[in-house]
C-alpha cells in the first residue's frame, strides 16, 4: 500500500502540471518526502534513488513550467522544492525518519517551501496583472488600424535587425505628413543607442526614400526610445526664413532651421559656443546670415563679426545702413544689423582684445550684481547684453600655422575658455569637420552647438567626430544645399535644413530691428575703450566703401560714413559709447590740436598750446584725420631709419584704433605723392619721410 503510495506518489510527484497552492504544494512535497523516507527506510531502498526522483521532479516541473510560460522565479522555486525535498529524504532514510531532528527539519522545510511558493505565486499574479494591464493600455490607446500596422511592422523590423524586443507605447504621425514617431520600450534594459546604431539598416529595410531616416533618440527616461521615421524628403525643398521678425532672446533660444518633422531647431548660446561646418557651396554663407538674423532679432545680443575674407559675411548687415539704403520710419538713422565688423587681422585683434577686456572687467565690476542674483553667470539682458563673436572660417584660424593667425587663435581660445560666465560666446564656422578642428579640446568642450552642412560633400565630413555618440548619420542623407545635421545639448543631432534667407530679408530685418539692438553696458563700453567706440570711424571702415555699389551717394563724397549719424544722441539720450566717443575726440583735439574731422564741422577749436604742433601737416587734403596726421608725425619722428606700417599702426592703435591696413593705404599714397620714400625690399621695407630721405 505504502509502496503503491510511494510509486503513486507520482500523483503529486509525476503530475508535473498539477496545480498547487503554497500550502498544498508544500504539504504535498513534505508528506511525499516523509512517505518515501519512512517506506524507503523500512524497505531499505537505496537512498540514491530518492535523489534521482527529486532531480526528475525538478526537471519535470521546470519543463512544464516553461511550457506554460511561468516566470523564472516560479520555476526556480518549484525546482528548488523538489531538490530540497529529495535531499531531506535521502538524509532521513540513512539516519532514520522518525527522529525529532528529522521530523523538525521536515516541518521547517515544509514551511520554507510554502513561503517560497507563496511569493512565487504572488509574483506570477503580479506578472499576469501587468500583462493584462499592458494589453488594456494598448487597447485603450486605440491605435488606429494604420498605426497598429506601423507599430507591428517596426516591432518586427527591430526584432529582425537589432535583435531587440520592443513594446510600442505610441505612434504619432507628424502634422506635416512627412513621417511619424514611435515611442518604444526596448525590453531587457536595452537603451536607445542599440537601435540608433542600426539606423541605416532600419531605413533600408523600411525602404525609405533617399534623404529619409529612422533615427532613434532617448525617450522620456532611459528605458524608452523615440524612433523618428521620415517618409518624405523635406530637405530637398527650400524653407524660406519666416517673415516674422519678432524679438528673440539668447536665453530662450535662437531658431536656426527646421527638422524633418518641421520642428524648429534652436541654439541656446548663453553658455555654449557653436561650430558650423560647411564646405564651399553647401550653404554656409546663407546659414551664417540666418544666424546673424537671429542675433539681430535678439534684444540681448550684440554681434561682432570677424571675416578675414573681405568681411563678406557681415557686409550685408552693414552696407544697407551704411549707404542709407533703408529708411527708418522716424527718419532716424538705421543701425546696422551687427555691432562690429572686422575684415582685417588688425581689426580682428582690436575686437578680440576688446572682448577680453570686456569679459575681464565684467568679472570685477559685476561682483555685486552676481552676489545679489546669487549666481556665477552674469544675468544677461537688454541692459547687459551678451556679446557673440561670429568668426567666419574661425576654425581654420585656430589650426593655422601662420604667425598672425596664431595670435588671433590664441585670443579666440581665450575668449572661449574664459568668458562663458561673463556672457561672451563665439560662433565659429569651418570649411570641414576635420580632426584638426575637432581635435581642439576647447572646441569639443565649449562648442556643443554643432551644425554640419553637407551639400553632399563627403570630403572632410567626419560626422562621427562632429556628433560623437550619434550613430547612423550619413552625409548622403542630406545631399542638398542648406541641408545637413544639427545637434545641441538640448536636441540630439539629426537631419536639419537651414532656412533660406534672401538679401531683401536681411535688409528688412536690419530695418525692423534697428531700435531693438541693445547698447553695450557702461561697464563694458569703458573696458572696450576707444577701439570699440571708434569702430565705425571713417578710416576704420574705409574698406567697406570699396564694396559700396555706387559712390555717387550724397554722403559718399565725404570719407565719413552715414553711420556716424548713429553717434548722434537719440531722443536726447547719450549712450555711454557716444559719450565716450565725444570725450575721446575732445581729448585728441586737446592733445594734438589737430584739424577737425571733415564730418564734425563744429570742432574748429584752436590748437591747444601744449599739444604737438602738427600745423605743418595741414593743408594737405588727404591728411584730413587726426589719425592720419599722427601717422605722418610718426613717420617724421622715425627720421632717417624710417618706419613701417605695423609700427605706425601699433603707435596709433591705442588712441585711434587705426589698423595696419589703413596705414598701408596712407603710406602708399604718400609714396605716390612724394611725401614718403620706400626703402628696402620685402620684410626689410621701410618708409622714410621725404624730409629725411632727401637730406644727407
Ligand atoms: N538653406 C538653403 N536652402 C536652399 N538653398 C540654399 C540654402 N542655402 C544655400 N542655398 C543655395 O546654395 C547657394 C550657395 O549658398 P551659399 O553661398 O550660402 O554657399 P556657401 O557654402 O557659402 O558657398 P560659397 O563658399 O561658395 O559661398 C545659394 O545661392 C542658394 O541658391
Give a written overview of the molecule.
InterPro entries: FtsK_dom, P-loop_NTPase. ATP binds at residues 278-285. It comes from Streptomyces plumbiresistens. By secondary structure, the protein is an alpha/beta fold. Helix content is 47%, strand content 12%. The structure holds adenosine-5'-triphosphate. Adenosine-5'-triphosphate (ATP) is lined by residues 238, 278, 280-286, 481-482, 498, 500.
Topology of this structure?
Blueprint: H1 2-8, H2 10-14, H3 22-42, H4 47-67, H5 72-95, H6 100-140, H7 145-162, E1 166-173, E2 179-186, H8 192-196, H9 199-205, E3 214-218, E4 225-230, E5 254-259, E6 264-267, E7 274-277, H10 284-297, E8 301-306, H11 315-322, E9 340-342, H12 345-365, H13 367-373, E10 386-391, H14 394-399, H15 403-418, E11 424-430, H16 435-438, H17 441-446, E12 449-453, H18 463-466, E13 483-487, E14 494-498, H19 503-513, H20 522-533, H21 538-545, H22 576-592, H23 626-637, H24 645-656, H25 660-673, E15 676-679, E16 686-689, H26 690-693
Parallel strand pairs: 7-11, 7-12, 8-9, 8-10, 10-11
Antiparallel strand pairs: 1-2, 2-4, 3-4, 5-6, 5-14, 12-13, 13-14, 15-16
The structure holds adenosine-5'-triphosphate.
Amino acid at each position: 500500500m505504502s509502496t503503491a503510495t510511494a510509486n503513486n506518489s507520482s500523483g503529486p510527484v509525476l503530475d508535473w502540471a498539477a496545480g498547487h497552492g503554497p500550502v498544498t504544494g508544500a504539504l504535498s512535497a513534505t508528506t511525499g518526502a516523509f512517505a518515501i523516507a519512512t517506506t524507503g527506510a523500512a524497505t531499505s531502498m537505496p537512498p540514491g534513488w530518492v535523489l534521482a526522483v527529486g532531480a526528475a521532479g525538478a526537471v519535470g516541473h521546470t519543463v512544464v513550467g516553461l511550457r506554460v510560460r511561468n516566470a523564472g522565479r516560479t520555476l526556480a522555486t518549484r525546482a528548488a522544492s523538489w531538490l530540497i525535498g529529495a535531499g531531506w529524504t535521502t538524509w532521513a532514510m540513512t539516519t532514520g525518519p522518525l527522529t525529532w531532528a528529522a521530523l523538525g527539519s521536515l516541518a521547517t522545510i515544509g514551511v520554507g517551501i510554502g513561503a517560497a511558493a507563496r511569493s512565487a505565486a504572488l509574483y506570477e499574479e503580479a506578472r499576469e496583472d501587468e500583462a493584462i494591464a499592458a494589453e488594456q493600455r494598448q487597447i485603450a490607446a486605440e491605435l488606429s488600424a494604420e498605426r497598429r500596422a506601423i507599430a507591428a511592422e517596426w516591432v518586427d523590423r527591430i526584432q529582425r535587425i537589432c535583435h531587440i524586443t520592443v513594446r510600442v507605447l505610441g505612434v504619432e504621425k507628424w502634422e506635416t505628413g512627412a513621417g511619424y514617431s514611435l515611442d518604444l520600450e526596448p525590453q531587457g534594459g536595452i537603451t536607445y543607442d542599440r537601435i540608433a546604431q542600426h539606423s541605416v539598416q532600419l531605413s533600408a529595410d523600411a525602404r525609405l526614400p533617399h534623404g529619409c531616416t529612422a533615427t532613434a533618440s532617448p525617450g522620456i527616461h532611459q528605458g524608452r526610445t523615440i524612433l523618428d521615421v521620415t517618409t518624405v524628403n523635406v530637405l530637398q525643398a527650400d524653407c524660406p526664413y519666416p517673415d516674422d521678425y519678432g524679438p528673440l532672446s539668447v536665453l530662450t533660444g535662437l531658431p536656426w532651421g527646421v527638422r524633418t518633422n518641421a520642428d524648429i531647431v534652436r541654439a541656446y548660446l548663453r553658455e555654449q559656443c557653436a561650430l558650423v561646418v560647411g564646405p564651399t557651396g553647401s550653404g554656409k554663407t546663407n546659414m551664417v546670415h540666418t544666424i546673424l538674423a537671429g542675433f539681430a532679432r535678439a534684444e540681448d545680443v550684440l554681434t561682432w563679426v570677424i571675416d578675414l575674407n573681405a568681411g563678406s559675411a557681415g557686409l550685408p548687415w552693414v552696407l544697407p545702413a551704411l549707404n542709407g539704403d533703408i529708411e527708418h520710419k522716424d527718419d532716424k538713422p538705421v543701425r546696422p544689423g551687427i555691432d562690429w565688423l572686422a575684415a582685417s587681422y588688425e581689426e580682428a585683434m582690436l575686437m578680440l582684445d576688446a572682448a577680453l577686456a570686456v569679459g575681464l572687467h565684467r568679472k570685477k565690476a559685476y561682483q555685486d550684481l552676481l552676489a545679489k542674483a546669487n549666481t556665477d553667470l552674469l544675468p544677461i539682458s537688454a541692459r547687459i547684453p551678451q556679446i557673440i563673436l561670429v568668426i567666419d572660417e574661425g576654425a581654420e584660424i585656430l589650426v593655422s600655422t601662420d604667425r598672425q593667425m596664431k595670435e588671433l587663435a590664441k585670443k579666440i581660445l581665450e575668449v572661449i575658455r574664459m568668458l562663458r560666465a561673463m556672457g561672451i560666446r563665439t560662433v565659429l564656422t569651418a570649411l570641414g569637420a576635420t580632426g584638426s578642428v575637432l581635435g581642439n579640446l576647447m572646441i569639443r568642450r565649449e562648442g556643443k552647438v554643432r551644425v554640419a552642412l553637407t551639400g553632399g560633400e563627403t570630403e572632410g565630413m567626419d560626422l562621427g567626430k562632429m556628433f560623437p555618440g550619434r550613430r547612423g548619420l550619413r552625409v548622403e542623407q542630406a545631399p542638398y544645399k542648406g541641408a545637413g545635421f544639427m545637434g545641441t545639448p538640448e536636441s540630439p543631432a539629426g537631419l536639419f535644413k537651414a532656412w533660406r534667407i534672401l538679401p531683401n530679408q536681411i535688409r528688412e530685418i536690419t530695418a525692423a530691428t534697428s531700435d531693438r539692438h541693445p547698447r553695450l553696458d557702461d561697464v563694458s563700453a569703458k573696458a572696450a575703450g576707444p577701439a570699440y567706440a571708434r569702430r565705425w570711424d571713417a578710416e576704420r571702415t574705409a574698406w567697406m566703401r570699396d564694396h559700396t555699389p555706387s559712390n555717387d551717394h550724397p554722403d559718399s563724397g565725404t570719407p565719413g560714413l552715414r553711420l556716424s549719424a548713429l553717434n548722434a544722441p537719440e531722443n536726447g539720450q547719450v549712450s555711454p559709447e557716444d559719450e565716450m566717443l565725444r570725450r575721446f575726440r575732445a581729448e585728441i583735439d586737446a592733445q594734438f590740436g589737430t584739424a577737425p574731422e571733415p564730418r564734425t564741422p563744429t570742432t574748429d577749436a584752436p590748437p591747444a598750446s601744449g599739444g604737438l604742433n602738427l600745423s605743418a601737416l595741414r593743408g594737405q587734403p588727404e591728411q584730413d584725420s587726426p589719425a592720419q596726421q599722427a601717422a605722418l608725425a610718426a613717420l617724421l619722428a622715425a627720421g632717417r631709419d624710417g618706419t613701417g606700417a605695423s609700427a605706425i599702426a601699433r603707435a596709433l592703435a591705442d588712441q585711434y584704433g587705426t589698423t595696419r591696413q589703413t596705414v598701408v593705404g596712407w603710406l602708399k599714397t604718400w609714396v605716390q605723392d612724394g611725401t614718403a620714400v620706400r626703402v628696402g625690399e620685402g620684410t626689410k621695407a621701410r618708409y622714410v619721410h621725404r624730409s629725411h630721405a632727401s637730406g644727407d
